[in-house]
Fold:
Amino acid sequence: MRALAFIPSLAVITLIWATDLPETLGAHPWWSEKSVLIGAPVGLALAWGAGLWIAALPRLVIFATFTACAAAAAFFGKRAFVASFGDSTLAGQFWYFGWIGVMAGVAALAMTLSAIALRR
Structure:
């Protein structure tokens, strides 16, 4: 995987962070920016590591599945947390870590897509 693939993916992540997109999509306002700052480096590291051993198409499928599962965890965690009037710690953790996973998946997808585009 080329080092140039980091540049477009960092641009996407910076745009997501600057516009506070996670809060718009349902993350808690207090930690919506933190989820980007924690999840993005993890996703970039995962994409780089997976790029060493896994071909491009399986990586896209893996990262898209991971992002969808993390989004489901965040969505249902938020619903359960709100339904419990803030008393369910486990639901709050699903909501919080789900958003970190979503940001990691988005960063990994962005880096994989930019690596595919740069290869052509």
Observations:
- Helices lie at 6-19, 21-25, 32-53, 56-83, 89-119.
- The chain has a mean pLDDT of 94.
